[in-house]
Design a protein that fits this description.
By secondary structure, the protein is an alpha/beta fold. It folds into two domains: 8-312, Alpha-Beta Barrel (TIM Barrel); 317-432 and 443-450, no CATH class. Helices cover 43% and strands 13% of the residues. The chain contains 18 helices and twelve strands. The protein has helices at residues 8-15, 49-60, 84-87, 95-104, 119-124, 161-171, 179-191, 213-222, 234-247, 288-301, 314-329, 346-356, 358-363, 365-375, 378-414, 419-425, 445-450, 454-457; strands at 16-18, 23-27, 65-67, 110-112, 130-141, 149-157, 176-177, 196-199, 226-229, 251-254, 266-269, 306-310. The strands form three sheets. A five-stranded antiparallel sheet has the order 1-2-12-11-3, with helices on both faces. Strands 4, 5, 6, 7 and 8 form a five-stranded mixed sheet that branches. The chain is globular and about 70 Å long. The two termini are 22 Å apart. The relative contact order is 0.14. Residues 275-287 and 415-460 have low confidence and may be disordered.
Length: 460
């Protein structure tokens, strides 16, 4: 898949269409002759999947299906856990509730991708619109004599229990594996015709080592599809787009939601007979939903996708954390184990451990009440996210950006000796060797926090 002979800034300007300050429509390079008007946002209503599909039909005469390809239920260990005996209602993140609400907002396919388990699909069985899926966790050793490892996540779709059992053997769930193990996993998915994606590249696991640019680049090369994630900072997602653009990989937009919110970031693509020329060779005959999803995914591979992507903002993240992590954790009937719910916001996680620790909260009741009130104040949590979490994540993403840029420029220079071989892998860099301006300079921390639109809106 070729994004065209544009430099990276021009590619961002061409493919990213702003729909407001924090939301973008990203048009894949596989559409022929499509012209998106500048006022396309006026057709898309409230940006729910149902409204966007209707608007794109009116505006561009496109019949598209929608899916959030990364979605969790209560079967994931790090989601809202409820005791129905106390709350007197079914869990809001039960597999059945997630399926029903996703379909209600306009999703055509609902892959439920819990962490290292297919318990949701064992509970539901076959349902119209439901796509079997799992988010696999791989701990890839660094091979430098230390205990450091990279934590990589990947979603696999349309698999059955037997195939998942084989995947668990290949990736050595819960233990260390190697890059060869990751290669065997990707090769197994190809052999079994199972679509898979590389999730939130550049993310640091709780106990994992800092992301390594060379390792991230090698992983991006292995997978057919990369992921833009609602819960990653803008610079991290732009690093993923830079990799996808450089390597000619399609991208998908996902929510990675662990709470009862639906239709924020998602992927649209057509289904139909016109995808028969796809090289993927995916074939399934289990049920109509899977047949349609395979067609949907093959069109993504051909670059025929439209993404609705929302940036992670302190305001949105603070409201999600307070409403769906802090408040429930302080309410009887919900899980009160702080170790199972990790936000990555150091101050919030430490405060929750303090508040939920029986010994400490009993000894200092007044201080505990003050901490509880602060934790349930959205503005206080928002300030913590702005000053601690977002800054830390932006520094990490900018450091990764510099490393990836150096690798890409080195690969571009080495292509001089074999231009014909490299032309397909690096279409945008042939003929621009040594031009360090082809990639954007990393945003300053102040720009990334105060003027979040500057990176996307920059002119070529």
């Amino acid at each position: 898949m070729v994004y065209g002979r544009l430099n990276f800034r021009q590619a961002v300007s061409k493919y990213f269409i702003p729909l407001g300050r924090e939301r973008y429509m990203i048009v894949g390079p596989g559409w022929n002759g499509i012209h998106v008007p500048t006022d396309v946002g006026d057709y898309l209503g409230d940006f729910s999947p149902r409204a966007v599909k209707r608007g794109l039909k009116m505006c561009l005469d496109l019949d598209l299906c929608a899916a959030d390809l990364h979605r969790h239920t209560c079967k994931s260990f790090d989601t809202l856990q409820e005791d129905p005996k106390i709350t007197k209602r079914p869990p809001v993140l039960s597999p059945r509730a997630v399926l029903a609400k996703s379909l209600r907002v306009g999703m055509d396919f609902v892959p439920e991708t819990d962490h290292d388990t297919m318990a949701a699909h064992e509970e539901l069985g076959r349902q119209e619109g439901l796509i079997t899926g799992v988010e696999n966790t791989l701990k890839i050793e660094r091979n430098n004599g230390s205990k450091e490892y990279d934590e990589i996540h990947s979603c696999t779709y349309c698999l059955d229990a037997g195939q998942y059992k084989e995947i668990r053997k290949i990736i050595n769930v819960g233990e260390m594996t190697s890059m060869k193990g990751l290669e065997r996993y990707v090769r197994f998915c190809e052999q079994e015709s199972l679509p898979c994606t590389a999730n939130h590249l550049g993310w640091k696991g709780r106990y994992a080592a800092e992301p390594n640019p060379q390792r991230i680049y090698e992983i991006a090369q292995l997978f057919d599809v990369l992921e833009l994630n609602l819960h990653r900072v803008r610079m991290n997602n732009m690093n993923v787009f830079m990799l996808a653009y450089t390597l000619g990989k399609p991208i998908v937009a996902v929510g990675d939601l662990h709470c009862p919110i639906y239709g924020i970031s998602y992927t649209l693509a057509p289904i139909g007979e016109d995808d028969q020329a796809s090289h993927s060779g995916f074939t399934h005959s289990c049920c109509p939903s899977i047949e349609g999803f395979i067609s949907f995914f093959k069109n993504i591979l051909k670059g025929k996708f439209i993404l609705i992507h929302h940036d992670l903002t302190p305001t949105y993240f603070a409201k999600e954390v307070v409403d769906y992590y802090i408040s429930p954790s302080l309410t009887p009937g919900y899980s009160q184990d702080p170790n199972g719910r990790y936000t990555g916001i150091t101050l919030v996680d430490l405060s929750m451990k303090y508040v939920l620790n029986g010994g400490i909260k009993d000894r200092f009741p007044i201080l505990t009440r003050c901490v509880k009130r602060s934790l349930q104040n959205v503005n206080v949590v928002k300030k913590s996210i702005e000053t601690l979490y977002m800054r830390k994540e932006n520094r990490r993403a900018m450091k990764l950006h510099a490393g990836l840029r150096a690798i890409i420029e080195e690969k571009s220079i080495s292509s001089v000796e074999s231009v014909e071989v490299q032309r397909e892998a690096y279409p945008s860099f042939v003929g621009q060797i040594g031009d360090s301006s082809i990639l954007p300079e990393p945003m300053s921390l102040r720009q990334s926090l105060i003027n979040p639109g500057q990176f996307i809106h920059s002119e070529p």
